[in-house]
Amino acid sequence: MSEVLLSARGLTKRFGGLAAVNAVTIDLWRDRIHAVIGPNGAGKSTLTNLLSGDLAPTEGGIELAGRDVTGWSPERISRAGLGRSYQKTNIFLPFTVWENVRLAAQSRTPHAARWLTLASKVRAANERAERALELAGLQPRRDFVAAAISHGEQRQLEIAMTLATEPRVLLLDEPLAGMGSAEAERMVALLLRLKQDHAMLLVEHDMDAVFALADHLTVMVNGQVIAGGTPAQVRADASVQSAYLGE
Ligand code: ADP
Ligand code: MG
């Protein structure tokens, strides 16, 4: 049975007079990919930053796994089960793939574990990192220096680093940006694997990938949701076609 893991109600973010995100309501379900599309400046990144706690909303609220997390810091929201990848990379290039994932795993020792012995914390972080590396398909690149792997693999590594914190909700901002078609295909396959057991918000410009991956779509223009539904419903929506898809 699927469940709502993240629920945002009437989210608004104003920068001066500009409502970058205007009364947006969105639910993210476990085992489902929810894509947000819209032209540049629509408010997609701002929405992602609101959900992750990197920005505080002007109005509205956010529930994560049934808890009101409105106004929480990004660190606290991360510990509560939300993982995000940034458009800008967090990878430490001189370190190996394994070291990057292992560091990310360490950065999130759950609060509940503070009484554990150091040895068991180290073991748990090792196990989290191993699982993340495996899930992201990066075992073969384990001992490569991050600077030496391909651009597509670096994006996989960012996702592995996010997975190492064991999130239940994943926010991915343009994971396919700058990829060739073979790399994009690998990333699409990875995102489909990650759909299992996660709720996912996907901001992506690659419409082929979006329509192949998304269970649900939200279309934003100028901070507002202008349409939403299944890919088939959104494709058939005349207002979306004129405002955005240009078909
Ligand atoms: P998208 O990711 O869909 O391209 P953004 O969320 O980045 O859109 O931006 C939405 C709008 O908010 C744009 O008009 C942008 O210029 C504005 N904006 C974003 N961040 C800020 C900020 N920190 N201060 C002022 N305006 C911002
Ligand atoms: Mg953006």
Automatic annotation (TrEMBL):
Keyword flag Isomerase: no
Keyword Transport: yes
Transmembrane segments: none
GO molecular function: ATP binding; ATP hydrolysis activity
GO cellular component, one term: plasma membrane
Native source species: Ramlibacter agri
SMART domains hit by this protein: AAA (SM00382)
Domain of life: Bacteria
Residue ranges of every copy of the ABC transporter domain listed in the record: 6-247
Gene3D superfamilies linked to this entry: P-loop containing nucleotide triphosphate hydrolases (3.40.50.300)
Keywords: ATP-binding, Cell membrane, Membrane, Nucleotide-binding, Transport
Pfam families per the UniProt record, alphabetical: ABC_tran (PF00005), BCA_ABC_TP_C (PF12399)
Protein name, UniProt field: ABC transporter ATP-binding protein
